[in-house]
Amino acid sequence: MEKPILAVDLDGTVGDPYAWLPRVNRIFELSLTEDNFHHLKIRSNEGCEHVPSDFYKNNKPIFHKDIGMREGAVETLVRLQERFELIFVTGRTEDLKAITEKWFKDYGLSSDFQVVYLGPEMKTIWTEKYKPVAFLEDSVPQSKAISESGIPVILMDTSYNRSLEGKNIIRAKDWEEAEEILIKGLYKEKTAC
Which of 57, 78, 133, 136 has a beta carbon 3.0–4.6 Å from 4's, enabling a disulfide? Predict the structure, then answer.
């Protein structure tokens, strides 16, 4: 019997959502912290208007290299792999493949995992074709679009997504809670945050 597909975002979901803040703070003399970081687009945060709009595009390794993992992510993913076909669907681009593979290796994740590099595309392009049973995500626009397409989203809690609520969105404070939601099938209830 085939395992159901579980889609998992990388950055901010598996990876530490705040690991790159100190790097950006140093470059631009900012004071962003987990508590005052309310928008993934840096320029949208208070006092960050001077950050160039193309900063991410021109400096992607700053955001994706050596970012660590959320506590419990690796162990939980290993356990979930027994029940689900895990597919990582990321906003990273193909040019970050080597950084991604090294990151997986450094944290003991199998290189056998499938990683789909979508870049700036909306992930609903992928979900419409592959129909995962749920999607673990942290991004507000991605979560909103995925949930509105009928795919349940397990929203990994961050300071920048706390305003998001809605049908098909279940907030998880950490990987332990995300695993419980998946194992108990709570995502099937399609409840709101």
Answer: 133
What pLDDT score does 132 carry?
Answer: 97
Secondary structure class of 156 (helix, strand, coil): strand
CB-based contact 144:166 (threshold 8 Å): yes
Ramachandran quadrant class, 47 (left: phi over 0; alpha: psi -120 to 50; beta: rest): left
Q: How do the domains of the chain map onto residue ranges?
A: 5-17+69-189, 21-64
CA distance 30 to 56: 16
Nearest to 34 by CA among 56, 10, 53, 12: 12
Evaluate if pTM is beyond 0.70: yes
Residue 74, judged by CB atoms within 10 A of its CB (0-12, 13-18, 19+), counts as middle
pLDDT tens column, 2-44: 999 999 999 999 999 999 999 999 999 999 999 999 999 899 9
The partner residues of 15 in beta bridges, in order of sequence, read: 69
Sequence-distant (≥ 6) Cβ neighbours of residue 118 within 8 angstroms = 89, 90, 91, 125, 126
Residue type, 11: D
